[in-house]
């Protein structure tokens, strides 16, 4: 049984891209067919998301950096074009998770994770968080939240993902795959 998962992200300084790759690698290792997509072509290997990618996927991981507690404008512009999918109910009951990065510990990651969730909930998707059986969620001194994976990049946006943040990203990918598999 093939599980098709889209990992959709926008990244300004590389942190969210690194998180997307951690999630994608986990999904790939579990046997999922992964489509890594972005909202704009910033790197030669970037592939821009299409609405058809969403229609065809079994699950979605969606992330952007925080912008004052909200998703990046590039993501918002895309979601505003998806009313036709909403009218047809084409994303209903697909599992989804969210991830984000900010420059400081109190830089808005949790608000952004909630903001990223809103279009997914409007589309009828099933939102998956990070349950407290993930030990790194309790131990983290950097990113991570019950609402989704997160990263604290530092004021100069140069901090690498901590081991805790990596494990939380991996747990998000594993949970997304598990639930998508059960539903398929």
Provide keyphrases for this structure:
alpha/beta; Rossmann fold; 6-stranded parallel sheet; 7 helices; 18% strand; 184 residues; globular
Structure description:
Helices cover about 40% and strands about 20% of the residues. The chain has a single domain, classed as 3-Layer(aba) Sandwich (Rossmann fold), CATH 3.40.50. The protein has about 180 residues and is an alpha/beta fold. Strands 1, 2, 3, 4, 5 and 6 form a 6-stranded parallel sheet that branches. Strand 1, helix 1 (about 15-30) and strand 2 (about 35-40) form a beta-alpha-beta unit. The protein has helices spanning about 15-30, 50-55, 75-80, 85-90, 110-120, 135-140, 165-184; strands at about 5-10, 35-40, 60-65, 95-100, 125, 150. It contains 7 helices and 6 strands. The longest helix has 21 residues, at about 165-184.
Order of helices and strands: EHEHEHHEHEHEH
CATH architecture: 3-Layer(aba) Sandwich
**Percentage of residues assigned to helices:** 40-55%
**Biggest sheet features:** 6 strands, parallel
Let me know the CATH homologous superfamily. Answer: Flavodoxin domain
CATH topology grouping: Rossmann fold
Task: Calculate Rg over CA atoms.
Answer: 15 Å
N-C termini distance: 8 Å
Q: Low-confidence parts lasting 5 or more residues at pLDDT below 50?
A: none
Outline: globular
Quaternary structure type: single chain
Query: Could you report the average pLDDT, rounded to the nearest whole number?
Result: 96
CATH C-level class is Alpha Beta
Q: Strand percentage, roughly? A: 15-25%
Keywords: Flavoprotein, FMN
GO molecular function: FMN binding; NAD(P)H dehydrogenase (quinone) activity
Pfam family, one: FMN_red
GO cellular component, one term: membrane
């Amino acid at each position: 049984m093939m599980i098709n998962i889209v990992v959709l992200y926008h990244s300004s300084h590389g942190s969210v891209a690194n998180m997307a790759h951690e999630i994608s690698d986990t999904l790939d290792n579990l046997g999922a067919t992964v489509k890594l997509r972005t909202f704009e072509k910033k790197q030669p290997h970037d592939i821009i998301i299409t609405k058809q990618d969403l229609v065809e996927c079994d699950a979605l991981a969606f992330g952007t950096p925080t912008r004052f507690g909200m998703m990046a404008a590039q993501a918002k512009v895309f979601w505003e074009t998806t009313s036709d999918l909403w009218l047809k109910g084409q994303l209903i009951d697909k599992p989804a998770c969210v991830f984000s990065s900010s420059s400081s510990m109190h830089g808005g990651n949790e608000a952004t994770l909630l903001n990223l969730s809103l279009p997914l909930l409007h589309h009828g998707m099933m939102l998956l968080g990070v349950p407290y059986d993930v030990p790194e969620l309790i131990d983290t001194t950097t990113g991570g939240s019950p609402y989704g994976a997160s990263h604290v990049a530092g004021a100069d946006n140069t901090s690498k993902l901590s081991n805790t943040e990596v494990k939380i990203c991996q747990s998000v990918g594993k949970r997304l795959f598990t639930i998508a598999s059960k539903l398929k």
